């Protein structure tokens, strides 16, 4: 079981979609640990690291595994309402119904997603 270091404020069993603050913000060298279960009835799920809590806030990192016969993982970002160039990886490590644990690592070049033995890199 994951135990947050002192001073960190984990969120357990959040409502979906979850929108909430990461107190102190994120910067290079920090990481976000996520665990959950992928529902059987979905065609995709998204994880966005947003630069604010309002609906129009910039999205620094968009991560979206797609199960809609494309079996791909999509990476992107959105600034001032404009989406960047979408990056796709056609290697689907996730399966519907599976429990998962993953870590998003923030570094100066962008983001790394670690899931099982797979590392995805999204460069800004």
TrEMBL record:
What keywords appear on the UniProt entry? Lectin, Repeat
Q: Which residues cross the membrane?
A: none
The molecular function GO annotations come to: carbohydrate binding
InterPro entries listed in its UniProt record: ConA-like_dom_sf, Galectin-like, Galectin_CRD
Q: Which domain of life is it from?
A: Eukaryota
Q: Name one Pfam family in it.
A: Gal-bind_lectin
Q: Which residues form the Galectin domain?
A: 18-124
Which PANTHER family does this chain map to?
A: GALECTIN, GALECTIN-4
Q: What is this protein called?
A: Galectin
* Organism of provenance: Oncorhynchus mykiss (Rainbow trout)
């Amino acid at each position: 079981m994951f135990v947050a270091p002192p001073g960190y404020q984990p969120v357990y069993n959040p409502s979906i979609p979850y929108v909430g603050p990461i107190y102190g913000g994120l910067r290079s060298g920090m990481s976000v640990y996520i665990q959950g279960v992928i529902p059987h009835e979905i065609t995709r799920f998204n994880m966005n690291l947003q630069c604010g809590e309002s609906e129009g806030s910039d999205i620094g990192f968009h991560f979206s595994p797609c199960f809609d016969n494309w079996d791909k993982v999509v990476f992107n970002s959105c600034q001032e309402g404009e989406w960047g160039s979408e990056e796709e990886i056609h290697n689907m490590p996730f399966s519907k119904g599976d429990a998962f644990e993953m870590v998003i690592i923030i570094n100066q070049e962008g983001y790394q997603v670690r899931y099982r033995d797979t590392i995805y890199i999204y460069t800004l």
